[in-house]
């Protein structure tokens, strides 16, 4: 019985952390990024983007927590009638977001986080970076939102 409680708790932790990731990535993709693109004051928008990225440093930790808790749920149910491959898939996909982010988004983020980079006379560079950032950030949003939706379904039903 104690093992069932631990598994249920880990399912909840996995779902909540997926929800956190889904919410943050969806908000960045659908609200913040378009608003910053429309900003006429590029240096102010660049400063805002830099602040947002600095505050996002906790996301890899949340991804690892979600991945580990999903993997635990799968491991504990492996070989039983309650085995559910969703938790293995979720663990691998969320765990894969960390290297994906490091490979695809970190180089772009470094431009936004560069000391002294204000994009004061580089509107085109700003627009290119924002377009590129959106292109690589959107798949993260879709993956997180999809996995969160399925995790809620699995938790409830």
TrEMBL record:
The chain crosses the membrane at residues 87-106. Pfam families: Anthrone_oxy. InterPro entries: Anthrone_oxy. Keywords: Membrane, Transmembrane, Transmembrane helix. PANTHER family: DUF1772 DOMAIN-CONTAINING PROTEIN, YALI0E30327P. This is Uncharacterized protein.
